[in-house]
Amino acid sequence: MRLIGGLALGLLLALAGALAVLVISGLRDDVQRSDVGIVLGSKIMPDGTPSPRLQARLDRAAQLYGQGMFAHVIVSGGTGVEGFSEAQVMARYLSEKRGIPGTAILLDELGNDTEATARNSAAIMQAHGFKSVLVITQYFHVPRCRYALRRADIDTVHAAHAQFFEARDLYSTARELVALPAYWIGGPRKDRSAPNPQAPVRSGTPSI
Questions:
Q1: What are 108's strand-pairing partners?
Q2: Using CA atoms, how far apart are residues 147 and 144, in angstroms rounded to an integer?
Q3: What CATH fold (topology level) applies to the domain 2-186?
Q4: What is the pLDDT of residues 41-82, one digit of tens each?
Q5: By percentage, how much of the chain surpasses pLDDT 70?
């Protein structure tokens, strides 16, 4: 019984340590001037507007754009159950609500998960000659995004977390403890079959 108890305690301590590393890593921003920013998609509300979580990501991206941290931004997301293209909704918000020129916004409408976003963004970056990226997402998602982008052969990856926290983060952080090791075990993938970059959204042009 003592052995079992010791093993259980060791496992709990290991999980607690991994959780602490994940959270600290995600909250420790690495904001540096980059060729392009990437905002990962999230839920769209039934009325076609970004959810509070997604809006926080977009607001942080707009803040960093205004500070001159990047001159272009990739908005990446697929079409959710609500029936809206996350990328188009994100582009429209940045253009209409935050004043970012449409010519500075590049869409990846097939970014259905983190790996797809990384792969598609790498193709967009290659097409535009971009070498460095500053990714914006939730703090718990930052470590996996960094790893996915580097696995897609993007060597210079910086990150910033959205200033938004909610109770759901507890579940999301726990999920990352499983998802991140799964990425490591999966090993590198060099799939370059990403779709061609979408045309940028023009300022004032309806996105959906």
A1: 76
A2: 5
A3: Rossmann fold (3.40.50)
A4: 999 999 999 999 999 999 999 999 999 999 999 999 999 888
A5: 67
Q: Is 56 helix (H, G, I), strand (E, B) or coil?
A: helix
Residues with Cβ within 8 Å of 15's Cβ and at least 6 positions away in sequence, in order, are 177
User: Exposed, middle or buried, 184 (CB in 10 Å: 0-12/13-18/19+)?
Assistant: exposed
Domain ranges of the chain: 2-186
Buried b (16+ CB within 10 A) or exposed e, 13-29: eeeeeeeeebbeebeeb
Q: Is the pTM of this model over 0.90?
A: no
Contact 85, 75 (CB under 8 A): no
Residues ≥6 apart with Cβ < 8 Å to 199: 107
Cα dihedral 74, 143, 28, 49 sign: positive
